[in-house]
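Practice problem: predict the structure.
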Amino acid sequence: MIKRIANIVLVAFFCNPFFSFSQKDSLLIKEEIALKFESYFFDALQYKAINQHKKAIENLENCNQIKPDDVAVLFEFSKNYYELNKNLEAVDYAKKALKLSPKNNWILEHLVAIYKKDRNYLDAIKTQKEIVAVNSKKSEQLVYLYLQAKKYKEAKELLDKIENPNKKLISKSA
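Answer:
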């Protein structure tokens, strides 16, 4: 009989909304966290826009604590480090972002810009080839990279292919 009364009291206790942790509280906490993330992220964008890249990075670090390994945050880290001429960090964050979003054209193009700034034309060519694989209209940039890397034969071959895309088809059938 005592067990039965204890069970009824326990059920009443847990069913009472005053004592239980509700789903609404959980949703409010998640919403507050999301708002903090957005606030830090947009502050970072504002600081970047006025060339205060160190403050932008501080805000991005707060974002990264709230939501680790977010592609947009990693990409913004890379862009801010690039502007601070910290190209090793810029490459590192761009590569981390690419691991999460491998075919992201914006990140790939940014990585090419970093490599060009460092005069690392071989890695720039490699990355530009990934871009061209998705968008053949970006082949001209690859020609320029070949020229900068003094790879004149590759530049000429690609230029011929751009100017005469059907050239190989004609020569094979003739």
